[in-house]
Structure formats: structure tokens, C-alpha cells
Amino acid sequence: MATFLYKLGRLSFRRRHLVALIWVALLTLAGVGAAGAPAAGNSSFSIPGTEAQKAFDLLEQRFPGTSADGATARVVFKAPSGEKMTDPGNKATVRDTVKELSDGSEVARVTDPYQAKAVSKDGTIAYAQVSYKVSGMELDDASKEALEDSAQDAREAGLTVEIGGDALQAVPHTGSSEIIGIAVAAVVLVITFGSLVAAGLPLLTALIGVGIGVSGITALASALDLGSTTSTLAMMIGLAVGIDYALFIVSRYRAELAEGREREEAAGRAVGTAGSAVVFAGLTVVIALVGLSVVNIPMLTKMGIAAAGTVAIAVLIALTMIPALLGYAGRKVRPAGEKGKLLGRAKAQDAPARPNLGSRWASFVVRRPVAVLLLGVVGLGAAAVPAASLELGLPDDGSQPTSTTQRRAYDLLSEGFGPGFNGPLMVVVDAKGSDDPKAAFTAVGDEIKGLEDVVTVTPPAPNKAGDTATITVIPGSKPSSVSTEDLVHGIRDAGTGIKADTGANVLVTGSTAMNIDVSQKLNDALVPYLVLVVGLAFLLLIVVFRSILVPLKAALGFLLSVMAALGAVVAVFQWGWLADLMGVEQTGPVMSMMPIFMVGVVFGLAMDYEVFLVTRMREAYVHGEKPAQAVVTGFRHGARVVSAAAVIMIAVFAGFIGSSESMVKMIGFGLAIAVFFDAFIVRMAVVPAVLALLGRTAWWLPRWLDRALPNVDVEGEGLRTASERGDGDRELVRA
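The chain above was modelled as a monomer; its predicted structure follows.
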């Protein structure tokens, strides 16, 4: 591995014009494809294997033309103070609005509040339901504008009007905080390298890699049904790992220059050593992201694969374009320890070497391993305590900012009709196998009326064939409550008895039931996913470190990090701690996919730091240093760079906290805090403490396993022979 990458690095350095041309051409092609592609909308949401999805599929078969997955809008009206919606003037305004809404070409039907009895008991609030023939992502801008114009006309007539539902869902924006994250990364790189040129290389290559990845996703968004969140996630992870991978190779290049090597040789060695770590670190991230497919939620699978593709591009760019750009930069990238005019020159060459901060910290940990280990573990354990109160759900209009019309419509409906009105349940009764379908429909309605937390049960609405009916159930509690979840399970349990008595099959669907099924599916998949991802990465790390205990320690450290990060997410987004600072306007359940998503992404990123830091330690140990001294040597060479990489990754992720999308905001915060815990507590404190306590045992590997494992030579031991022969180029040509 190291020898091949060494040759690749030297070739890229020499043939830099060709390498740069290839990457610029790929960026151009991706950009052209993205520019000519239809805009990405919100990805269609399907959950194979769940009861809610089966009911949706059944509705499409038995109620053709009803567009079960079509967009919906609830236009909510509130009368002025002292008036009622049943007053003649207000009634006329509402009916004019309903007539205006019905004229749209994509509108399937509009309900009249007065015919549908959609007026609150006190008469102050009413709503009209608008159903569309197409889904929210397919809805034309003209239809959305017509909806908003109709509402505005009613407002001008004196009514308060708000619009809920998914018809007006907008593509999320991230705000200026994303740019601030990149700016922080630039400052950290300048401080780390002391040179604008050296600092600019990781930023440039990361932006090119993200540009190719996100443009490719945009170009394929319509064909592959990729939602707007997919490209946001790919950008978030691609920027972070792209900067980090380039940072490690540039840092190693400067270290090789400081040892007196020629620039082409230094580029080859940097790619051969740090590049090997980049390859394996990238593989762990890709495994974690692609592994999301085991959950069998198409949207999550697409997000994971798209982000994994962006990571793979980041790895390839770091291995090829970085050495090419180093060739262009020439003497503007200086050896380690020698800074340019920006931050001042280094000390004279004959000045005594002073241990850097990383060496001093590692020496302290090696002397006090037990105290440091206990402090780190107890601290992370305390941060993880809120995770015991974790409640899962999927965001609805109630989690939107109060500045949005969707949230105000949600609040008006809760005020007029009760909190459960925002999460109606649709019960589908399949009576095709029943002798008396009408009796079965009635039996289902009567059974549901007797359940707890039920406010309203509408009469059955059969299809033309008379073998299937829908019943709408209004719960007494809000959609994300435990009581509503219990009601869904109660209806499904009652359906078992009804099927035995009547032969009719009862299915519960609707957005609320779908959210409950998604949460359950994600919970069921968490342990298998964890075993798969951690197991594969554990085997990979055994090959990298040629050790059993080091990968085991890495996995356990990751569990500490992710539990502490989940605890922080619960504290902020569920309990409301620092909610104002984070821009969280509405607390509530944590997004259902957050735990499994954090397990996947954080594990991959955590292994980045493990690989980069511990390979330096193993390199020193393989070259003859004692275990304790190898820990100090690893920190002397790697701590500064790993710290810079972590700060950059935290800054990039934290930049997405400013997103208008609650899902992106939560992911950005969760990943940022997880990287902080993992990099600065686990990898910088717990890891050296454990290695100091284990000593030589840390690097133990059974002889039979040592013989069976392939030798990937991450430490670059084979590079000595290749460089001494001076025939690396000839071998590459022959290969």
C-alpha cells in the first residue's frame, strides 16, 4: 500500500498539469450536468415493510385517482376579535377563497369548511383542506403562488389566514453560518502552517471535491429521487473530511522537507505514509455511510451512498491533486518549523529543540494514566446521562419556527380543534375477504370509538367497489406524544380481533402513523447496524494496526463519544438547554434517525483521528521506540495536526446549525459536539492513557493471525528500500 501510494504521489507531483486538468475537467462536467438538471425537491418518502406504507399502497390500488401521496394544504381561517367564522361576511370570504383555490390545474379537490363541519365549537376558527394530484416535490411554483395569493386575498378581507401541510415546503437554507465555518477552517489552517499558500491547498482541494460531489448529486437528483437534504449532508461531510485529509498530507510533506528530502521525494513519502492513513480512514467513513442501507429506508440509503461518494472523491483528490498542487507551489510551502513572513521565521537551525505542546501533554498523560483515564470516562459518562431520557420522533409542523405560516397554522388548529387534530390517523379497512363489508366498516368504527384518547371518528368512506373504506380518527394528544403512539398500537391490536370476527383487515396510516413506524424501524435496525459497521471497521483496523486491543479500544472510545453526543443532543433539542443560543424555537422528540445516523457518521469520523494519531505511534514503535516513548512521539508529530483537523471539522459542522431545516440543524450540532468529545477527550486523553497502561500488550497480535493478515505497510517501512534504489519511477512505468 505505502509503496504504491508513494509512486502515485511522485507521479502526481511530476505530471501535475495532467492531474490538475483531469480534476478541473471533472468539476466542469459535473457543473454542466447540475446546471442543466431539474431542481431537487423533497425526496418521496417510502418505508418498505411497514403497515403505514402497505396502507398507502392499498389506497392507490382501491382508490384510483385519489393521489394518496399527493400534496396537501390546510388553509386555516380565524375570525377577527369579537366575530365568528359563521358571520355572513366571513362566510362569504371563505367561500370565495375555496372557489379560487378550486381553479388550480393541479388541485384534486377542496373541502368547504361549512359543508365538512370544519368549524371550531366556539366558531372562531375554520379550515379548508386542499388536496393536490401531485406530491409536494412535483408541485408547480404557479400552484404554490396561487395558494398564497388566495390566502392573501382573505387576509385583506380582515381574516387571519395561515397555511399548513406540505404544499409549501421550501428547500432548506443554511445561512451565513456555513460560510463562517469555512472561514474558521481557513484561520486554523493559516495558524497551523504559518503560510497562506500551504493553508489554501486543503481548502482548494476540499472545495473542488465537494463541488464535484454536490454537482453530481444535483445532476442526478431528479432521476434518482434525491432530496435537497442529500446534497446538504454530502456538502457537510465532504467539506470536513476533504479539508482534514489534505491537511494531513500537506503536514507530512512539510515534515519530510524538514528532514532534508527533495520536494518530489517528500511528496511521494507524504502520500505513501499519511496517504495510507487517509485511505483507511476514508474506508471507515465509507463503510459507515454505505452501511446505512441495512436500515432499508430508501431516503436514508440514498443520503448515505451520496455522502460516501463525496468522501471517496475527497480521498482521491487528497492522494493525487494535493501532490500536484505541491508541485505548483514549489518553495512557497516551507518545511515544518520554518514559517513564512506571515507568522515570522522559525528559530535558527542550531537552536535547541523545545518539546511542543503535544509532547508535553503526552508525557503528562503517560505519567498519570489512571487519573486522566478516570477523568475522561467520568466526564463523558456525565455528558451521556441525558441520553437515558431520549424520546424519538420525526419533525412535523409543530417543530417549525414560529415565524413560518406552517407553524402558525399548526397552532391555530390546536387552539380551535385540539392538539390531536394536527395528526389525524387514517384507518384503512380492507373488507375484500369479508362476507359483509358494510358491517365490517361499522364494527371497526365502533371499536375505535371505545379506545382511549380518541376525540373524533368519522363515518366510513367506502370506495366505488364497496370493498375498502377509510376512517379518519382524531386523537386527543399531539402527533409526537406517547399517547398518540399508544392509540396507533391500540387500533392495530383491535384490528386483530376484528379480522378474526369479520375477515376484514385493518391498517393504520397517515403521516403520524408513518412517523411511528419509521421510529420503530430505526430502533430495530440500530443494533444490527452497529454490529455490522463496528465489526467491519474493527477488522479493518486490525489490518492497519496489527493489534487486537488497539481496535477494541478505538471502538469502546467511540461508544463513549456517541453516547455523550446523544446526551448533548437530548439536553439541547429535547430539554431546551441553550436552545436560544442554538436557534431551537421548539423543543420536542429527537429526530428518529439521529441515533443510527450519528452511530454511522461519528464512527467513521472518529476512526479518522484514531488512524492518523495511532499510526504515528505504531510507526515509532515499529522503528524501535519503547511503548511509552512511542506515544509521546506520536503526539509530537500528530497532536497539532489532529487538533487542527478537529477544530476545522467542528467549525464546518457547526456552520450547519444555522440551517432553517430542523433535521440539518440537529445533525450539524450532533456531529460537531461528537467530534469535540471524540477528538479532544477520547483520542487526546483516553487513548494515550490506555496505551500507556497496556504497554507492549497494546501491540500484541497472535502469530497465526499475523501470518494470515495482509501487510498493508501503513507505516511506510517499505519506502526506505524504494527511495534508496531510486527506481520507484521505473517500477511505476512497468506497473
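The radius of gyration is 30 Å.
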